[in-house]
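Notebook entry, structure prediction.
Reason for the run: the old model in the group folder had no record of what sequence produced it. Starting over properly, with the input documented here first.
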Amino acid sequence: MNLFGMMDISASALHAQRVRAEVVATNMANAETTRTADGGAYSRKHVLLASAESGNTFSSSFRHAGSLLSTPSQTVEGGVDVTSVEGDGAPPIRRYDPSHPDADKDGFVEYPDINPLTEMVDLMGATRSYGLNATALQAEKGMVVASLDILK
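New structure, fully documented this time:
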């Protein structure tokens, strides 16, 4: 592994956990959405992650964030990729509310099957993983600086 290999791995993990946190936020924001553009209640989403065969590079992560870096560093295996964001396919929860505009003929409204506790646990996991990877990135940065000081 080259000197920046750990940075590449941490950068891919930071990106994956950011996506995971954004999906959780979207789920929480749509917990009461009874009508979407597709028609029907919002469907809870979750992120699928996989081991990266030729992981994202640290410099390409910055380039996607709007940086002017133009030459990607060597790719490093061992990172993580967001393979997809998919609906969980759980059936909606039916609640009796005949005054709701989306109520069916029997007075039931279909709400997304989103449990706030599950979403908060998922958000805590994403936040902690993001923090640990940021700490690993800072440690690698410290090692690089120490190495450069030794070489002076």
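Summary: The longest strand covers residues 80-87.
The old model has been moved to the deprecated folder.
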